[in-house]
Design brief:
7 helices, alpha+beta, five-stranded mixed beta sheet, two-stranded antiparallel sheet
């Protein structure tokens, strides 16, 4: 009995000593598990008298500092480049419009000018989308208010009514409840607008769009290709199933996903009853 008691005491002492000596490692692992690039609170507090752990802490901290600096430079470059490109793009568009108004322009030249103007418009829209993504990732939309998603839906349904009618697309709106979300209003406006615009761009002639507002939930579905999309890639930047689709830059759903991430909203996709359905849920 004394031998068993002695062995038990030695075992407990060894476990306690091991746990005590390995606490700096556990704190480091916990910090790494919760680390996110660009997070405001990223300082590692892990004081220890063990030289190996101190060296490990310094190495890990230096490594992540380099990652943070590289990430910050990349974000700043994208934002600055997108912002600086807007002015020359606008100037080019104005010059093309002035040339199109010239009475001496021949018909073949007019066709080429129209193609150039369309290309510049697509480039400008792409640049604005990249700039918006950069602002979202930089957390520049901080202010939050109570936003009624029902009102946003009504606003954009009325705005796009003529466009939907021209394409012979029917719109069904069902409001089962009111959804109020605490978020940034400009971001929520962009979120609903992009989803409805996506439902229109990827629709078919004579198709339909279904909008359902439930408690803490918004679902937008549309007809289109008669098979499900690749749910693992649809939210990636510049992913387009149809590369020749006009009006699509490949950034619309990426912006939607970025807005949902910063606003604490879940988004999922499914293909059901012939509709491509995107569901937002608080």
């Amino acid at each position: 009995m004394l031998l068993l008691l002695l062995m038990l005491c030695v075992g407990v002492a060894l476990v306690w000593a091991f746990w005590r000596n390995m606490r700096p490692m556990y704190r480091l692992l916990h910090w790494l598990d919760g680390y996110a690039i660009g997070a405001t609170e990223k300082k590692l507090e892990n004081d220890t008298s063990i030289s190996e752990f101190r060296q490990l802490n310094e190495t890990v901290t230096d490594c992540f500092d380099r990652i943070e600096r590289a990430y910050e430079r990349e974000r700043r470059f994208i934002g600055d480049a997108s912002h600086e490109m807007q002015t020359p793009l606008a100037i080019c568009q104005n010059r093309v419009e002035m040339l199109m108004e010239d009475e001496h322009v021949t018909e073949p030249q007019m066709v080429e000018l129209m193609k150039t103007q369309q290309t510049l418009s697509e480039l400008s829209r792409l640049n604005k989308s990249l700039l918006l993504l950069s602002k979202i990732e930089n957390n520049q939309f901080i202010e939050q208010t109570d936003v009624c998603m029902n009102e946003l839906v009504h606003h954009f349904v009325e705005m796009y009514a003529d466009v939907f009618e021209a394409m012979n697309v029917t719109m069904d709106v069902a409001e089962e409840a009111q959804w109020h979300v605490e978020a940034n209003e400009p971001l929520m406006t962009t979120l609903v607008s992009n989803l409805l615009r996506n439902a229109y761009i990827h629709n078919v002639d004579g198709g339909r769009i279904s909008v359902i507002v439930r408690e803490d939930e918004l679902e937008i579905g549309n007809t289109g290709i008669e098979e499900p999309l690749d749910s693992t890639h649809i939210f990636e930047r510049f992913y387009r199933r149809d590369r020749n689709k006009k009006g699509s830059s490949g950034l619309g759903l990426s912006i939607v996903k970025a807005i949902c991430d910063v606003s604490g909203i879940q988004i999922d996709y499914r293909y059901e009853d012939g509709l491509h359905r995107f569901r937002l849920k608080a």
